[in-house]
Design goal:
CMD-like; AhpD-like; 2 domains; 8 helices; mainly alpha
Length: 174
């Protein structure tokens, strides 16, 4: 049970209903405890990150690693099927979630060590060069924003103890 009452879909205002329809999930009902404009901005950033040129497999590895480091069962639930659909095997998912990066290819290891450092400190230094060699400028900026977005998401979900949805919500609606 959430620590604060989530917005009730039956009583949402027009702007709130529009945000909720973009991604009808408990996450958005939690976001709507702020303002519909904030919920929309959050969803806009999520959509932009999903549509970025970053490799989809890498994107999902990053999200699953942040979810694991943040203890966010909600993020995992929303992304595990997406991860499988973009080609991650069960073994790769386990390696990502358990931090067994030696089981992954060198490029994936470099990125995930970078993610690990970003989650633990605001300025990645030790892992920067290796990740930069793999990702380049655009990829680096995108991964940093992706990590921040999902850290923010995890903190909202975990602090408010937002309940899992009955199942994953389609990201196609964003």
């Amino acid at each position: 049970m959430a620590r604060i009452p989530l917005a009730d879909p039956a009583t949402l205002s027009g702007l709130e209903q529009a945000a909720y329809q973009r991604f009808p999930a408990n996450l958005v009902l939690g976001l709507l405890r702020s303002t519909p404009e904030i919920a929309d901005g959050y969803l806009d950033l999520g959509a932009a990150l999903s549509a970025s040129p970053l490799d989809r497999k890498i994107r999902e590895m990053v999200i699953l690693r942040v979810a694991s480091l943040s203890g966010s069962a909600y993020e995992r639930m929303q992304h595990i099927d997406i991860a499988k659909s973009v080609g991650l095997s069960y073994a790769e998912i386990a390696a990502v979630e358990l931090g067994r990066f030696d089981e992954l290819c060198p490029n994936e290891r470099a990125i995930l060590w970078f993610v690990e450092e970003l989650v633990s400190t605001p300025k990645a230094t030790v892992t920067f060069e290796a990740a930069f060699q793999v990702l380049g400028e655009q990829g680096m900026a995108t991964v940093i924003l992706l990590v921040g977005h999902y850290m923010l998401t995890a903190r909202l979900l975990e602090t408010l103890e937002i309940d899992l949805d009955a199942g994953p919500t389609s990201w196609d609606s964003i």
